[in-house]
Structures are given as C-alpha cells and as structure tokens.
C-alpha cells in the first residue's frame, strides 16, 4: 500500500511548496559521476488522444465542469489527465483530476476552478465552448483506493481539491460504506458540487458532509443528527480537529484518509492526523491541484541555454547521442532521440521524469519537487533541466 512511497510524496510536496513560497532561484546542477539510468520527455507534443468538449456545466461563478469525449478510456477514481490547451498561440499543459465516476468510458469530466491570473483556468472557465478540441494524455496518478480496501473513508479537500474526492464518492454508488467528506470553502456560493453533495447524502446511507465555511459566524449544527453540518472558519488545523471530532469512525484502524487541496490545508491535515496517531501509510495525498496556473510550464524558466551535445544512456544498454537545441529540455531531447522516457506533469511538479546526471552541468527551473536526497544522488528532472555543457544522462525507459 502507500508506505515509503507516500512518505516521499509528502516530503516532495512540502519541499516543493516551501520552495515555491520562498521563490528560490535556479542553481545549476553539476555532476562528475559515472553512468547508470533514468528518464526524459517532450516539450510540446503530448502522446495522447484528441478530446472534444461535448458539454459545459457551470458549478460556481468561477468553476466549470467540462465533459470531454475521449473515445474508450479507463480510469480509477482519483486519477487525473493532462490537457494540452492552446491559448494565445501557445500550448499549455495542465493536469486536472477526473471528476466523474470511474470505469471504462468514452467520456470523462474534469472540473476547473479559475485561478486569478491563471492562463489556462481562465481560458477554460470563461472561453471554452462545446466543440473545442484538446489533446488529452493519461489517466495518471495513484491517488486511488487500494484494491480490496474495506473500511471507512475520510476525504479532506478544499476548493477545487474536491474534484478527485467527488469522483471517489460517485464511484462508490449507493453503498452504505462509511464516508466523511471534510470540505473547506469561502462561502456556499463558492462550493463546487454543493447541490450534488446534498443529494448524495440522501442516496448514500453512510455518507456525511462536514463543511468548513469562512463566511459563517458560527457553526451550523446538523438537523436531528443529519449527515450535513458546517463549521465556521477557514479549514486550518484547529477547525480540522473539530471536524474530525465529529467523525465517529476517524479512529477505526481500517480508515483511509484522502487529502487534496491547497498546500496549507494538506499540511494542516497531516499535522492533525499525525497528532491523532494515524500512520502515514493510511494517508493518501494528491499534489497536482497545487500547480500554479499563473506560471507557464514552458516559459517560466527564463533560462537560455546554448546547443549542447548530450548522451542519453537508457535502460537495456541503448545509448543515444544528439545535440540539444538552444533552450531544449533533456526530456524533449530524449524524446526527440526516440527514447520513451516517462513523464507526467512536464512542469517539475511530479518527479516522474527523474534522470541521473552522470557528467556535465545542467540548470533546472526552480522551484521543483526534487528532494534533497535525490539531488544528492545526482538526480535531475528532465522536463525542467537544460544542459549548460556537454552532458551524459541516465534515462529510465
Ligand atoms: S514530468 Fe513531472 S516533474 Fe517532470
């Protein structure tokens, strides 16, 4: 299940978030090691499928659901897809959690909340229309219920962080499994899926919703012990602790906890759960909603690098040598060289494109999600790394 891997995800997330907040600059990475391996990717073209917008559902004044016709696709509740969205002559990549019930389908829904100043979210919320076509890649992600898990679920989300949690809820159908959604928002009007959640508590006997609302002056008690109640205040550690006190199965040894939302909410949730002795192995966390739509995955670097020779050493012994174009990332170069290097976000936020720098020097866009021990091992992120001199790089394929 989620043990060491998840702890590393927490750490990666926390480090990434704190670096973003500190606005760290891009230090070069130098290595004189000798060979082994890791992976790269493309800068522009997604290896995916064409999807057409077939319906748009407004959820709040600044959030919409887009239903995309994708052709046959299978996904688990909690996973996300990557969209390539052309805006103002550029293609931008963004990851969005699927917000409909899991399964083998031909249409998926994503729900997008506008980020102030956000390039893609503003476009999708204000300008997307039925008939628009996007490239979609995925599904990706491990923010899913472990196969065979039987036990209560505690879902913690805020804002658009509710989207994968809503998919999990829908996927459980009319079961009587015990589920609590702890959901933070500024106001009732800003609450995505407000009416849908109110309807779900009527059809799922074990489901309850606990809202945290910044616009409330006082808590709103449930009617006759009903499944919906609201807590006054921002969803910080103090409010979360009060909310968890109202969940009777929170201490069940089989309970699983899903966290999705802004970094401060997830951090507070981890702290509160740790204080209650909940082991990290029972906590799953989604980090993609923390992406900053106000940056552009390809333009935020401001890093100019000249053409440089690079040798990629792939698993299985294959070696590809080529000259990277000025400004080209290692991931793009490796893909151009015919290597099937893994990647996902293409923005330095997931770690999927990790490579190992054997020799040479690269400069990476910062902040990114590389952990200190990964840096110490000479690992780099191919999607945001560009060579400053001749390099040799190991690539997972
Ligand atoms: S693809 Fe996500 S960090 Fe590079």
Report on this structure.
This protein is an alpha/beta fold. It folds into 3 domains: 27-44 and 298-395, Beta-grasp domain (Ubiquitin-like (UB roll)); 49-140, Elongation Factor Tu (Ef-tu), domain 3 (Beta Barrel); 153-290, Nucleotide-binding domain of ferredoxin-NADP reductase (FNR) module (Rossmann fold, 3-Layer(aba) Sandwich). Helices cover 20% and strands 34% of the residues. It contains 8 helices and 19 strands. The protein has helices spanning 4-22, 119-126, 162-171, 194-203, 237-245, 263-275, 330-336, 372-376; strands spanning 28-31, 49-60, 63-75, 80-87, 90-97, 103-113, 133-140, 153-158, 179-185, 207-213, 228-232, 256-260, 283-286, 308-314, 319-324, 354-364, 379-381, 385-387, 391-395. Strands 1, 14, 15, 16, 17, 18 and 19 form a 7-stranded mixed β-sheet that branches. A 6-stranded antiparallel β-sheet has the order 5-4-7-2-3-6. The protein has a 6-stranded parallel β-sheet with strand order 11-10-9-8-12-13, sandwiched between helices. A hairpin with a 2-residue loop joins strand 2 (49-60) and strand 3. Helix 5 (237-245) crosses helix 6 (263-275). The two termini are 24 Å apart. Residues 1-6, 16-47 and 294-301 have low confidence and may be disordered. The structure holds FE2/S2 (inorganic) cluster. FE2/S2 (inorganic) cluster is lined by residues 41, 343-346, 348-353, 381, 383.
């Amino acid at each position: 299940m989620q043990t060491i891997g998840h702890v590393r995800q927490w750490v990666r997330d926390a480090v990434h978030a704190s670096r973003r907040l500190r606005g760290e600059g891009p230090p070069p990475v130098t290595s004189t090691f000798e060979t082994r391996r890791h992976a790269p990717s493309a800068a522009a073209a997604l290896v995916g499928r064409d999807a057409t917008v077939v319906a748009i559902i407004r959820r709040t004044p600044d959030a919409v659901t887009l239903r995309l016709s994708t052709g046959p696709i299978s996904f688990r509740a909690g996973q996300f897809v990557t969209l390539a969205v052309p805006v103002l002559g550029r293609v931008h990549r963004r990851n969005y959690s699927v917000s409909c019930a899991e399964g083998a389908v031909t249409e998926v829904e994503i729900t997008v909340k506008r980020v102030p100043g956000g390039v893609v979210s503003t476009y999708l919320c204000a300008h997307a229309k039925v008939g628009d076509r996007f490239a979609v890649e995925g599904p990706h992600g491990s923010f899913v219920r472990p196969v065979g898990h039987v036990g209560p679920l505690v879902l913690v989300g805020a804002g658009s962080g509710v989207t994968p949690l809503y998919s999990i809820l829908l996927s459980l159908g009319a079961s009587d499994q015990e589920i609590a959604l702890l959901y933070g928002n500024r106001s009732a009007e800003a609450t995505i899926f407000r009416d849908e959640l109110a309807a779900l508590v009527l059809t799922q006997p074990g489901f309850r919703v606990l809202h945290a609302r910044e616009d409330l002056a006082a808590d709103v008690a449930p009617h006759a012990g009903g499944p919906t109640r609201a807590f006054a205040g921002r969803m910080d550690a103090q409010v979360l602790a009060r909310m968890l006190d109202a969940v009777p199965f929170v201490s069940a040894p089989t309970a699983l906890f899903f966290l999705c939302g802004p970094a401060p909410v997830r951090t507070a949730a981890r702290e509160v759960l740790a204080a209650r002795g909940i082991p990290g192995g029972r906590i799953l966390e989604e980090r993609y909603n923390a992406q900053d739509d106000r940056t552009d995955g390809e333009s935020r670097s401001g890093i100019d690098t000249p053409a440089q020779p690079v040798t990629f050493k792939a698993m299985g012994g294959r070696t590809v040598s080529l000259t990277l174009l000025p400004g080209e990332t290692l991931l793009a170069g490796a893909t151009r060289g015919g290597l099937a290097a893994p990647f996902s976000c293409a923005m330095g936020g997931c770690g999927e494109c990790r490579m190992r720098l054997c020799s040479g020097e690269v400069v990476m866009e910062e902040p990114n999600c590389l952990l200190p021990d990964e840096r110490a091992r000479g690992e780099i992120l191919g999607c945001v790394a560009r060579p400053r001199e001749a390099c040799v790089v190991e690539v997972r394929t």
